[in-house]
Amino acid sequence: MNQHVRIADKIIGDGQPVFISVEVGTTCNGDLDASLKLIEAASDAGADAIKFMIIGPEYFMSDRSVVYEYECASGQRHENMFEMFSGLTFTTKEWQTIAAHCRKCGIIFGATVDYLPGVNLAVELQTEFLKLSSWDTANVPLIRKMAQAGKPLQIDTGPTTAGDIDKMLGWIRAEEMDDVILVHCSHAKEASGVNVRSVPFMKDVFACPVGYSADNRDHVADLAAVSLGANLIEKRMTLDRTHEGHHHIKALEPDEFADWVKTIRRCEAMLGDNAIKPSAEDLRQKEMYFVSVVANTNIAAGTTINEKMLACKRPGTGIAPELLPQIVGRQAKRDIAENELLTWSDV
């Protein structure tokens, strides 16, 4: 796999800014007006990309009677899964409007695709990247079709093991696709299960960019992932968290998302380099608060200096304390006042 992946005008990989992607596949509500507002909000927040879902429940659901339970602002909600997914679809004309609005707002347009004809639609819409969901990482026909599309491929790892990922990358490489970003996507209900260290592990083992997809509004795992070297962070956005639909309760509203982007960028800036590099402010304060060799008493010119005549006091702009022994035994070349910094021209 390539260690750096280009998506539009962005490079994803080590040494590059963290790629920030807004997830609105469910929180757009399958509504065109809401989608356009989310695109504008994502662009205003400073995100790099926005990701929708090109979804076809009639292609991947054999049982249309499944009832899905999820959390929303009013509590637990039960909804027919097929009907829920069907409500998140768009017409081709609506998709074209969405794609055009992304271009107008200067934000990268990507999509999760979960059925074979959807890949063709994504290509027609000129999405900049495709995403494979956690639940399709063993769907070989879909994986091959997405790899054949020739677009950078993001993969949610979800329930997969290292062996599963290795097999999946083999299927992708067989289609001559090397632009893959693995995305650690945990659905753990407890903190210990999130295992953000999967991010550096996958980077070491698979030698490709690795991201983290947040499952909730909490910032801690996002910051931990960035600190551990994540090249991409994905976070949900909603126009209104009180909406009854799926995932809204787990999403950030536009103002919150904008603040979150600033937090991610601050975290990224704080990481710095893999080296010890005192800041300019540390170096400025070093001169004030380090100590130097000073006279511990008045020393007359011609006096042979002994250790009791010397002390180490602030500031740190004079002779370093480690050199004090080299001063002992020398003669003062001038009168030196108590607490005066010594210089080599004085002894």
SSE layout:
Elements: E1 5-7, E2 10-12, E3 19-23, H1 32-45, E4 49-54, H2 57-60, E5 67-72, E6 75-80, H3 81-86, H4 92-105, E7 108-113, H5 116-124, E8 129-132, H6 140-148, E9 153-156, H7 162-173, E10 180-184, H8 198-206, E11 210-213, H9 220-227, E12 232-236, H10 254-271, H11 280-289, E13 292-295, E14 310-313, H12 324-327
Parallel strand pairs: 3-4, 3-12, 4-7, 7-8, 8-9, 9-10, 10-11, 11-12
Antiparallel strand pairs: 1-2, 5-6, 13-14
Number of domain units: 2
**Tally of individual helices:** 12
Which CATH C-level class of the largest domain is it?
Alpha Beta
The biggest sheet amounts to: 8 strands, parallel, barrel
- Proportion of beta-strand residues: 15-25%
CATH architecture of the largest domain: Alpha-Beta Barrel
Count of beta strands:
14
Q: Fill in the CATH topology of the largest domain.
A: TIM Barrel
Main-sheet strand order equals 3-4-7-8-9-10-11-12
Helix content: 25-40%
Mean pLDDT: 96
**Helix and strand sequence:** EEEHEHEEHHEHEHEHEHEHEHHEEH
Characterize the overall form.
elongated
Descriptive overview:
With 347 residues, this protein is α/β, with parallel strands linked by helices. It folds into two domains: 10-271, TIM Barrel (Alpha-Beta Barrel), CATH 3.20.20.70; 280-346, Type Iii Antifreeze Protein Isoform Hplc 12 (Alpha-Beta Complex). The chain is 34% helix and 19% strand. The chain is built from twelve helices and 14 strands. The strands form four sheets. The protein has an eight-stranded parallel β-barrel, surrounded by six helices. A two-stranded antiparallel ribbon has the order 1-2. Strand 10 (180-184), helix 8 and strand 11 (210-213) form a beta-alpha-beta unit. Helix 6 (140-148) packs across helix 7. The radius of gyration is 30 Å and the shape is elongated. The relative contact order is 0.13. The model has no long low-confidence stretch (mean pLDDT 96).
